[in-house]
Design a protein that fits this description.
25% of the residues lie in helices and 37% in strands. With 373 residues, the protein is α+β, with helices and mostly antiparallel strands. The strands form 5 sheets. A 6-stranded antiparallel beta barrel has the order 2-11-14-13-12-15. This is Efflux transporter periplasmic adaptor subunit.
């Protein structure tokens, strides 16, 4: 009996709950859906005014001294101490002695050869007086001007074939050229600075034994430097020798003015670039410094320049027409690292000047003029 009562109560409760649940569903069905306000994005715009856009080609490179020499010894001997130390960083003026090698032993041999030439000519003077009196005085004057401590003077000009045969037959001409050869080699014991500059490398020190063919160091001219840059072949015809170039250090804190000094006539087959050399002069520059160059390659007429982030796929950009975004085709003519130069955009066209997240053609927008031209 108790069980029947419990089941009856549960049944009544279930019916009541069902009725309440049904009423709740009906009430919710009649509740109106919340209204979602449509969001209109605000975009920055710019009105197009076509004009002349300079195309600047960025490039970078390392400075190298325009004039430099590697110092090698052509003779052997002991490196003598000079007026200035032979050390990196030492400055030398044009004509000053860079390197002096002890040539005392070799100099004695040159003096001996000069003396032998003098004696040979002296020995033929009696024969010249008798057989060639018309040229005797010429050769006597030569002997009078012969100084063993100085470079051997040039032999007198031969007046006739007989004189030539006579002088040559005595071995004077061959002796003369032997002496000149020795004198030429003697001059190689001293190396003079061909220009004013600085020693950047020194591989020997005073007192060292220098051997023939040994590298001694490097000497550069600090008055002018060159920077080698690689330019795309498509812009090679736009660059001219003598064109001014703006150069900056990597920190963009110092600006220099350079000049295109040389343009290679060969295209690198691997990179399709042409090597261009830019000359720059400044007392603060040092060899090995990296600089960035901005080459004025071309003036593009009837064009505009915008950020590369505004260019869409398939060469299109967003424009605003009656507060609605639209897309037009454009013609890119040059890409820089951050910007792109475009042609084919009519004057007066309103374009967006900053990227819009989720933008699409037909999107309703509010405009904010950036006042950019």
């Amino acid at each position: 009996m108790t069980r029947k009562i419990i089941l009856s109560v549960l049944g009544v409760l279930l019916v009541v709950a069902s009725i309440f649940f049904a009423k709740t569903l009906i009430a919710n069905k009649n509740t109106p859906k919340p209204f979602r306000e449509k969001v209109v994005k605000t975009v920055s715009i710019d009105t197009v005014t076509n004009g002349t856009v300079p195309i600047i080609i960025p490039a970078s490179g390392r400075l190298v001294a325009k004039s430099r020499i590697e110092l090698y010894s052509e003779v052997q001997g002991v490196f003598k101490k000079g007026n200035k130390l032979f050390k990196p960083g030492q400055e030398f003026n044009q004509g000053e002695v860079l390197i002096s090698i002890d040539a005392s032993e070799y100099y004695a041999g040159v003096q001996s050869a000069r003396s032998n030439l003098y004696n040979t000519i002296s020995a033929i003077m009696p024969d010249l007086r008798l057989d060639f009196p018309e040229v005797y005085q010429k050769w006597q004057n030569y002997l009078n001007g012969f100084d063993l401590s100085k470079s051997t003077p040039k032999l007198p000009e031969m007046s006739s074939d007989k004189e030539n045969y006579f002088i040559t037959g005595r071995g004077i001409v061959s002796s003369y050229y032997d002496v000149k050869n020795l004198e030429q080699r003697l001059s190689k014991f001293v190396i003079y600075a061909p220009f004013s500059g600085i020693l950047t490398e020194a591989l020997v020190t005073e007192g060292s034994l220098v051997r023939a063919g040994q590298k001694l160091g490097e000497f550069i001219n600090t008055s002018a430097y060159e920077m080698e840059v690689a330019i795309s072949e498509s812009y090679s015809s736009l660059l001219k020798v003598g064109e001014k170039v703006e150069l900056n250090n990597l920190d963009k804190t110092v600006t220099y003015t350079g000049t295109v000094s040389r343009i290679n006539g060969r295209v690198d087959p691997t990179t399709q670039t042409i090597t261009t050399f830019i000359e720059v002069k400044d007392d603060s520059l040092k060899e090995g410094i990296y600089l960035e160059a901005n080459l004025n390659a071309k003036q593009e007429e009837n064009a505009i320049e915008i950020s590369r982030s505004l260019l869409l796929e398939d060469n299109k950009i967003f424009v605003v027409r009656d507060s609605i975004l639209d897309i037009i085709d454009v013609k890119p003519v040059y890409f820089s690292e951050t910007n792109v130069v475009l042609k084919g955009v009519p004057n007066g066209t309103i374009i967006i000047s900053k990227p819009v997240v989720g933008a699409y053609a037909g999107m309703l927008v509010k405009t904010l003029n950036d006042d950019k031209k």
